[in-house]
Amino acid sequence: MMRWFTIVLCMCLATTTVIAADTEITGSVVSADGKPISGVTVRVLKTKLGTFTRSKGEFKIVLPSTMDYTLTFSMVGYTTKEIAVASAELSKPIRVMLEQDVLKLEEVVVVGYGTKQRKDLTGSIARVDAKEIAQNTYGNFENAIVGRAPGVQVINSNGMAGSAMTIRVRGVGSLTASGEPLYVIDGVPVTQGDFGGKDRLATQTNALASINPNDIESIDILKDADASAIYGSRGSNGVVLITTKRGSAGNTKFNVSLFNGTSTETNRIALLNGDEFRAMWAEANYNDSVALKALRPNAKFTAKPLPGAMDPSLYTNTDWLDRTLQAGQITDANITASGGSSFATFFTSLGYRDESSYAVGNTFQRLNGRANIEVNATEDVKIGLSANLNYADNKRVPSAWAGGIGAAQSSALPYFPVYNPDGTYFEPQRPWYAMYNPVAQLNENRFNNIEQRVLANLYTSIKLPLNFSLRIQGGVDQMNFTDRRYTSLIVQSEAEAELRKVGVTNWVLNGTLDYNTMLMDGLTMTALGAVEAQRSDQLVTGLKGRNFPNPAFENPTSASIREGYSFETGFSFLSFITRWSLNYQDRWLLNLSGRTDGSSRFGSENRFGFFPSAGLAWVVSNEDFLKGNEDISLLKLRISYGLTGNADGIDDYQWQGTYKAGADYAGNPGIRPDRLLNPMLGWEQTAQLDITAEAGFFGGRLQATASYYSKVTSNVLLNVSVPASTGFSSILKNVGSFENSGVEVVLSGYPVSSGDLTWRMDLSVAHNTNVVLDNAFLPPDAIGGPGETRILVGYPVGTFFINRSAGVQSRTDSVRVTRRRSGNNVSFGTAKDDERWNAFYDTTVVILGGSQLFYNINGDITDVYDLNDRTPLGNPYPSWFGSFTNTITWKGFDLTAMVYYQFGNQIYDDAAKRQVGNLASNFNQNKELTDQRWQQEGDVTDVPRLSLTENYDINTDRFIYDGSFVRLRQVTLGYTLPQSWLEGAGFASLRIYLTGQNLWTWTKYPGWDPEIMRDQDGAQGRNLGAGVTYLTPPQARQFVVGLTAGF
Amino acid sequence: MTKRASLRTIVSSVALVATLTACESFLQQDPPLDISNDIALSTPSGINAAMIGAADAIQSGALFGGNTMSMGELWSNNVESNVGADFGRLQILTYNLNVFNPEGRSMWGDGYNVINRVNNVLAALETVPFADTDLRTKLKGRALAMRGMTLFALCTYFAQPWGYTDDNSHAGVVIRTEPTLGDLGTRKPRATLAECYAQIIGDLETAATLLPATDAPYIGALAAKGLLARVKFHQGDYAAAEALCTEVISSGTYALNANVTDVASTNSTKEVLLEVINLPNDNASSIVFDFRQADNASPRYWAGTDFVNTIYTDTTDKRLGLYVYRNNRLYVAKWDRIAMNIPLLRLAELYLTRAECRAQQGNGSGAIDDANVTRTRAGLKPLAATLTGNSLLNAIRRERNIELAFEGDVFLERKRQRRNLKQRPWNDAALIFKIPDIEMNANSLCIQNP
Questions:
Q1: To bridge A572 with a disulfide, which of A454, A535, A755, A907 should be the other Cys (CB 3.0-4.6 Å)?
Q2: A204 CA to chain B: closest CA distance, Å?
Q3: Residue A36: which of A703, A619, A624, A630 has the closest Cα?
Q4: How many helices (H) and strands (E) does chain B have?
């Protein structure tokens, strides 16, 4: 189809040019290996003349007159070439060689401990390059990966500035341990994660947010075992390799990029106003009086008063969301200089970002400096230094359950005023939620994190005789994190302040020996051996204070009651690495790698683990029978298998049997046994199979990649019960298992590529299935996540374990219901207990209209909510996700539009049980959903009648929603000014652009935003909680205008 | 690059590799905040600290900080209650116990915490050299006494009482005498009750030979003997119990307080042989939270009708000063101080135990003398010297019920006397906890209570 299109286009162009036959120029176009290329656009500059090359790469253009011409040769997948032809030379056929630059076919990708050409890969690596990274306007580089790495799910926790990211490479990689990939920046595994203290403010921090995305040349994500086994015990969750920009010899280039924009929430939910809330409160009281009369006709009904016990004259309509949300501002500026000579090259950069999010009081400022310098000390010795200084200041505000916009949606009721008549903050009568007045909280409390981080590494690479080369590298990642918190006297009964410092010193030292040789004709081999040592030490110190002599003090030292604390932890790795790659005539590729990892985290009897992998590829298109085929330019089949581990999930020292202090008695200090010895404790192990076919058609104009993978993770870390009579409850052991398997398909092509117009389309589809195979027979409630998520055999990780709603009784009537003989609301126990508690009987009872009914474990209707009736339902992770990107360039204009989608996941809205027709929670209500409530006899709905006495604060599948969404993730429209305009102005290039992110969303999810991750402390919560929200803030929508200029 | 230079490079890189390889110690890191088992118990002071840690476990509210006394009261006729939605206590009141009962779970778990901590100490005492051999002897005695008293509490709450089967071959609890170091071989069946009692008695008897007579704030030999008297009395071994009581009483070390209320108002009175020390930060005395009525608190427990009728038969009883009548309820003021020390064994109990022992063995006048000790202090008339047989026993038991009320004694006593607890016979399956899930889930050798 596309080919036909090309031919037609070709003919059109041809007809226009064969008119006047004066002079003609002929020639042929070949690729670097001498093969003719057909379909190359040949244009004669400063004329309208042009043509395409024919099947043997030949072209002929008739020229109107004999003079000097300049010809351009362009072809998708090849670097455009300009050739000047003097008038005297016109009669000679010219031969032009084009270098391939096709759809990532020939690009160099970063693999662990080296680089490879993509064509030589036997494993699956996704790459995001600087150009793509530059399109991201969010403050962290992880956001640049969204939609650009097939099979990699990047979850932005929320749209707050500085908040945490979660990345899942080919499905969730662990149960209770970390599911995040390993991040390696320029060869140094870096400190990652949240250092902001436990569950504070209901959001997490992101230590990697201090990295400047503008410094990054490429992000390579190692997805399968062939690629990631070189990272051994830390490869299972995938590896994100970040390579920063380098200079190249030549004139010094300066580059300035600037953008400025706004940030708002993607969506806002309609809540009740004060009058509506009070009217519903009255309705609830009325319903309760009717219910009481039905039960006890002579009983006296007492209406429940409105929460807050306030003077009715103060009732008002406050839109708390208006008071806590704003239009945020973003300013981002970068200046870089790069260049060098044959002796040395350099890249230096300075970056600044100042962002305020849509949440009032939430800001993120960042300042970055970098110098990457490489010196050719001798002909054989290179010495390089990368130094990177980062400073990030994140002013944080509470959300969700901790207040701020979370309170504005919930406990700050709409009839509360912000201020009292005397100007002080309004405060309803206690006891009450601490977050009664989010405006007071946001104005009076302070919480900020400052991250100072130095990333530096020094390396030398030495060419040795006999095709050996040696590289020695030492890197340091020093992160200092300061946490300041102040809670005002105005918000709680006693002011509190805390100062907390976290220091993480992380160093790595490695030596790599490379060797390459030709073993026989057509068979080449490259080999690598490396040794690496890494150590990381963390020290936390803090001081808390309360009770201040003067409210102006906001530091804990000035408090009268002070409490200091400290915490230390650390780990080390020692690794031996090897990789052997064989290439037979570019037709057969074999890659063998292995890493032996030792870690202080592994038990004394299990200190070293070995992680091998093997990958085999057959490049069918290089076989004789396909060579020179015009339609199929690439066909490559590859298969790989290998073992990787996950050791970053193990807390330090877990294998050791230890005693803890603090078991004091009668004022004497005592110790107690804390942990059981497990000398066999080790990594979680993943065995991954990857089968991939890559194909390129029409000279790289269309490329398709399809992968199947299966990842079985075993030896999963679980806290396994030991008999309590041992004096312990559990021991951390490698016991469980689960599986991820899936398919990834990527299609990239150029529907149009002619002259000034290029249109590129990229479609990626990833399908993943996750199932727990073994949870060590732990009872369902042993491993729980937020929002009733569990780990149950036969179900996906984080499935919701929840009661099923059987709807709402439409009319008051006698109904036959099933009840349990034993009314105990208890959990599963032994088989015998199950038998006892699962004995049922049928009975007929009068059910009032508007009452909530349930299904019991057998699917019978019951009026009693019982935790024994919980059923596993739903999946927090999407079964299908991917992106569809269109990039169109026309003359100087460029337009990129990316749609990101995911399907098949469910969201459990843990707050909906308090926000959909449940006034008794004292929360404001979701207006749209609460309007669907039962109001009168005969109403058919699934939202029960309003009540202040019925307990609707219960988990049912009523609050499990389809979490599928399609989102216009990013649109960029740019214009690159023509060279001719710039020449006088001293610019080498100038581009201006507009970018919008998260512009439009399609979803059935009725909450704020379907793209969520309930921010939880700890890996387990994050593995399980990907589909759970509790007043989680929405994503940010950004509009920016920017420019990049080169000098 | 010259050949020499490259040789040098290769040699130095080989050296680098060798250095790293040699450094397996590089991978051995010790936790900065904890200490490993070997180091923890390698010195006498370390073992002493571990012994303090065992006493800390004894102090738990789920154990001797309260529940070993108050749970039995809840089952008995002494107490009426409003436990609200507290499902653990509701299960006791509705005789519908399951493996998840939080009170059963925490008592079992904390009880075995004590036992494991003590076993660690006992094992270390065998290997670590002590310059101060007196300290070693004392630590061993203390450890054995703690194990004995904890095992007795666990048997009381998780096993049918002594005499449930003729030879006491019914299930007791799991006996552990070795420290738990790993998770291998941790499954173990329950011993018979006879075996458990042999262990308890052995531990307490040995402890009594090793300990000094008194050793506050820890257990002394006299207190160990007092506890042993309690065990023997429960077994119906009246001669042995009498002898032990006599030994303690005649030592003269302890004496009854002058006022009946002193034990409630003051810590460490001279009447108390053994108490759990509570400091303001410990927050461990759960029994106080069950009963405390001071400051107009509304406690969960108050005196039941049976008990009210018993104590009000003589309104001159000074022990009525330990109760407060309010809201139509008789609140208990024995446990009224936050962070009070919890008396575990009082001299009064030994007099009353000896009184019944003597009565059981036909020494009526001795029995009456003993029973009159607490009666006199309570301002009551002495018992008539003419009392004999069942009427004497009943009088002593009535006195015992009042004197030791709400201190957990009633639970053992009713079972020993084969009397109902409320409507349930003494050997009813619902009068003990189930073996909790935290044991059953991981110990397939452990059988459940029916």
A1: A535
A2: 25
A3: A630
A4: 18, 7
List of E strands, A821-858:
840-847, 852-855
- Contact between B164 and B235 (Cβ < 8 Å): no
Phi-psi region of A662 (alpha: psi -120 to 50; beta: other; left: phi over 0): left
The whole-angstrom distance between residue A1032's C-alpha and the CA centroid of its chain comes to: 16
Q: Do B99 and A666 touch (CB under 8 A)?
A: no
A511 contacts in chain B (CB < 8 Å):
13, 16-17
Q: Which residues sit opposite A917 in a β-bridge?
A: none
| Strand-pair partners of A574 | A533, A598
Assign residue A794 a region: left if phi > 0, alpha if psi is -120 to 50, beta otherwise? left
Q: Give per-residue pLDDT as tens, B70-91.
A: 999 999 999 999 888 788 899 8
> What's the predicted TM-score (pTM) here?
0.86
Chain A contacts of B217, Cβ < 8 Å?
665-666
CB contact under 8 A, A666 and B279: yes
> Quick one: DSSP state of residue B98?
-
Q: What does the alpha-carbon distance between residue A772 and residue A774 come to, in Å, rounded to a whole number? A: 6
Contact between residue A131 and residue A148 where contact means Cβ atoms under 8 Å apart: no
Tokens encoding A173: 């990689």
Asked if A218 and A110 touch (Cβ cutoff 8 Å), the reply is yes
Q: How far apart are CA A679 and CA A657, in angstroms?
A: 9
CB contact under 8 A, B26 and A672: no
Note the Cα A834 to chain centre separation in Å.
41
Q: Report which DSSP code applies to A650.
A: S
Could you tell me the pLDDT band of residue B19, with boundaries at 50, 70 and 90?
A: low
Partner residue facing B108 (CB), from A531, A676, A724: A724
CA end-to-end span of chain A: 43
Cα first-last separation, chain B? 85
Residues of chain A with pLDDT below 50 are 1-21, 102-104, 431, 434, 823-831
Smallest Cα distance from B48 to chain A, Å:
8
The sign of the dihedral angle between the CA atoms of A117, A119, A122, A128 is: positive
Q: Quick one: DSSP state of residue A600? A: T
What CA–CA distance (Å, rounded) separates A88 from A71?
A: 15
State the pLDDT at residue B23.
63
Task: Reply yes or no: is the peptide bond before residue B212 cis, omega within 30 of 0.
Answer: no
Q: What secondary structure does DSSP assign to A17-81, as a single string?
A: HSS--SEEEEEEEEETTS-B--S-EEEETTSS-EEE--TTSEEEEEESS-S-EEEEEEETTEEEE
In A165-296, which ranges are E strands? Answer: 165-169, 182-185, 188-189, 216-222, 239-244, 250-265
Tell me, what's the pLDDT at A7?
A: 42
B191 alpha-carbon distance from chain centroid? 19
The one-letter code for the residue type at B7 is: L
User: Which residues in chain B have Cβ-Cβ distances shorter than 8 Å to A775?
Assistant: none
Chain B residues touching A513 at Cβ < 8 A? 13
d(CA B117, CA B60): 14
The size of the A-B interface in CB pairs under 8 A is 233
> Residue A427: what pLDDT?
82
DSSP A468: E
In degrees rounded to 5, what are phi and psi of residue B366? -60, -40
Q: In what order do the strands lie in the sheet with A871-873?
A: A784-785, A789-790, A799-802, A871-873
Alpha-carbon distance of A444 to A488, in angstroms, equals 6
The Cα of B247 is separated from the nearest Cα of chain A by a number of Å equal to: 28
Using an 8 Å CB-CB cutoff, list chain B residues near A568.
Answer: 32-33
φ, ψ dihedrals at A607, nearest 5°: -75, -30
- A37 neighbors A7 (Cβ within 8 angstroms): no
If phi > 0 it is left, if psi is from -120 to 50 it is alpha, else beta; for residue A63 that is beta
